[in-house]
Write a structure and sequence with these properties.
Elements: E1 2-3, E2 7-8, E3 24-29, E4 34-39, H1 42-48, H2 51-62, E5 76-79, E6 94-99, E7 106-111, H3 115-121, E8 126-130, E9 137-142, E10 145-150, H4 159-170, E11 175-178, H5 181-184, E12 192-194, E13 197-199, H6 204-210, E14 213-219, H7 229-243, H8 247-256, H9 262-267, H10 289-295, E15 297-301, E16 312-316, E17 326-328, H11 332-338, H12 347-360, H13 364-379, H14 398-410, H15 415-418, H16 422-428, E18 438-439, E19 442-443, H17 453-461, H18 474-478, H19 492-511, H20 523-534, H21 541-561, H22 573-577, H23 592-603, H24 613-618
Parallel strand pairs: 2-4, 3-8, 9-14
Antiparallel strand pairs: 1-10, 3-4, 5-6, 5-8, 6-7, 9-10, 11-14, 12-13, 15-16, 16-17, 18-19
Helix pairs in contact: 1-2, 2-19, 2-21, 7-20, 11-13, 12-14, 13-14, 17-19, 19-21, 19-23
């Protein structure tokens, strides 16, 4: 059925259309089968840019504290930034913002591919979906016109089948995001997929499934205009050339993908192994980027047209049990979670488990960490073979790992329980709490925090739960990026470094660019692209960092409203109390409390991690909230 759009006068139109923005937010209410649009406000975009900043602001304004993540009133927000769809390198990321069903915190998750640019070409900077339909549907936005179409025929299909069928129905030039069967079942580890790319963490797929929304398809032709075309072309070219000259973004990542760091991380004693019991895997070479390159990876590709990094790989299994399985990846996080963290060195099994996660629509990090947790429960006699449907969950057993992932992905047998996540599983086995490796309900990613103190802080203070991407200090602590920094220090210098990285990343996520640009660019190159695109009069890149700080503080205000505070900025007991048994960081624990004290103080938050009114005013957040 067609639904017409109407203008809402709640915003002042500041003619942002010539500043990298389309100037409009599209709202679709599935309950009412209606749509409307609002004009962007220049003050909001100046203070928050777009992407994460804009999506978070909308989430804050559109919800009240305590909203149920799976209720019709929890908005699902797809946000672009001023650089999205332009010639700026890596400017194709989609930002998805909602309240997480896994953590009950803010959730912002990112997906590569072509959907974000195409959404912007339809004439909208942001799509906000609320409500719920009685039957499965898909939303179609074709050159600005909005339709809600029945999708019962798509319900139950895998992500690949769904995207293929939608394009067959509408046309190959449509760009699609969708959920798999896991999202339909409201799994808290389900993601939103597009062309085998995934906004995977935190359960955004469950939010989409709770609305009975199987897919969104977009097609557009609207051009994007920038403020200073010549200066913008020059800035984009300099950024592109710089990325093509960096060792990481021009050679290492194009060759080995994100797995380029695996052997280095293992050598530094920071590769999580057997559910974070240690940071060294004795068979790391068998699952390294070098090994995948020699055996299973058949091609390299970029996730979009304007990315010079080309970190994506395509793996094809040509023999053995999993013969003919092809998968996009696996990337470093997938290799760690399904590999070393489970004690598994079978690359083919890792690829097949990755394939299952992609098809059924679940996050590979959470899936692998759940399996690793189960393996430790089994090792300690906390869970039996009978409870696991006859599976002997021994460390290093690739077949057992695959069987458990399959049960989780298909929500069969014990998988119905395991797909709830590590935190929920640990409640059934109270003796396991000390080694339930999650923060705020989100499973921990692939860096052992005892070997990189900054990453321990980053996991603890991340607004969406354990996340390596909110302030990626691992690059400097473990890989020598930007000259390197002592991974075992936990002083004020380390905290300020983490804050600096966190603020930079918030800018990148709001522009919106791929995080990997920071492996080749500094913020000054990003500043030139943003200011020439938008015309915003930020004095220099330091003022751009204030934008990042403002976004981080707004994220904190959302979580404080939801009841989160210092008590939640913590890590598992294994990280805080059990010394690392081997490697360069042998004997170390995470020294979190002194870092938290310095972090809150530097941010202008009180001792409980609540932003002070003075700092909120200084950041001008009172002007837009």
């Amino acid at each position: 059925m067609s639904i017409s759009g109407v203008v809402d006068g709640g915003f002042v139109n500041m003619e942002l259309e010539n500043r990298g923005y389309m100037g409009k937010i599209l709202y679709v209410d599935l309950t009412e089968c209606s749509s409307r649009f609002q004009h962007l406000d220049e003050k909001v975009t100046y203070l928050l840019l777009g992407g994460k900043g804009l999506g978070l602001w909308l989430l804050y304004k559109l919800t009240e504290g305590g909203v149920d993540p799976l209720s019709p009133s929890n908005p699902l927000i797809f946000a672009t930034g001023p650089l999205t769809g332009t010639i700026a390198p890596t400017s194709s990321k989609l930002c998805v913002v909602t309240k997480s069903p896994a953590t009950k915190t803010l959730l912002d998750s990112y997906c590569g591919g072509f959907f974000a640019s195409e959404l912007k070409f339809t004439g909208y900077d942001c799509l906000v979906i609320k409500g719920r339909t009685e039957r499965p549907v898909m939303v179609v936005i074709d050159r600005g016109e909005v339709d809600i179409k029945p999708a019962e025929n798509l319900w139950g299909l895998t992500t690949a089948e769904t995207e293929s069928n939608v394009k067959r129905m509408l046309g190959e030039d449509f760009k699609v995001v969708c959920i798999g069967p896991a999202g339909e079942r409201l799994s808290p580890i389900s993601g939103i997929f597009s062309n085998m790319r995934c906004a995977g963490r935190g359960g955004a797929g469950a939010v989409m499934g709770s609305k009975n929304l199987k897919a969104i398809a977009v097609r557009g032709r609207e051009p994007i205009s920038v403020y200073d075309g010549e200066r913008f072309k020059k800035a984009a070219w300099i950024a592109y050339r710089t990325l093509r000259m960096s060792e990481s973004t021009a050679r290492s990542m194009p060759t080995y993908g994100t797995a380029n760091i695996l052997l280095t991380i293992n050598e530094m004693g920071a590769l999580p192994t057997r559910n974070f019991q240690t940071g060294r895997f004795d068979r790391a070479e068998e699952i390294s980027g070098e090994s995948f390159r020699e055996t299973l990876w058949k091609s390299d590709h970029a996730c979009s047209l304007n990315c010079p990094i080309r970190c994506s790989k395509f793996a094809l299994v040509e023999s053995g049990t999993f013969k003919s399985v092809g998968v996009d990846g696996p990337d470093y996080e997938t290799i760690f979670s399904l590999g070393s963290n489970c004690g598994v060195s079978d690359k083919q099994a890792i690829c097949y488990a990755n394939y299952l996660c992609d098809m059924y629509g679940i996050d590979t990090i959470s899936a692998g960490c759940i399996v690793a947790f189960v393996m430790e429960l089994y090792e300690k006699g906390e869970i039996s073979k009978q409870e696991l449907d006859g599976i002997e969950a021994n460390w290093g057993d690739a077949e057992a790992m695959v069987k458990l992932v399959e049960k989780i992905a298909k929500c069969e047998g014990i998988g119905k329980f395991l797909q709830l996540g590590v935190r929920e599983i640990s409640k059934r086995y109270p003796n396991s709490k000390s080694y339930a490796m999650e923060v705020k309900g989100l499973e921990m990613p692939g860096y052992e925090p005892r070997a990189a103190q900054g990453m321990g802080l980053c996991y603890a203070i991340s607004e969406r739960g354990a996340c390596h991407l909110r302030a990626y200090t691992a690059g400097t602590e473990l890989c020598g990026h930007l000259g390197g920094i002592d991974p075992l220090s936990y002083d004020r210098v380390k905290v300020l470094h983490a804050i600096d990285r966190q603020d930079e990343k918030a800018v990148i996520d709001s522009a919106v660019l791929c995080f990997f640009t920071l492996f080749g660019l500094r913020l000054k190159e990003v500043y030139q692209m943003i200011t020439s695109c938008t015309g915003f009069d930020y004095e220099d890149e330091s003022e751009l960092k204030v934008v990042g700080e403002r976004i981080i503080t707004l994220a904190r205000l959302f979580n404080v409203r939801e009841g989160f505070g210092r008590k939640d900025d913590t890590l598992p007991d294994r990280s805080l109390k059990t010394p690392l048994p081997e490697g360069p960081a042998r004997g170390e624990i995470v020294h979190l409390e002194p870092m938290l004290n310095e972090y809150y103080k530097a941010r202008g938050w009180d001792e409980n991690g609540i932003p002070t009114l003075e700092r909120i005013k200084e950041l001008k957040l009172t002007e837009i909230l």
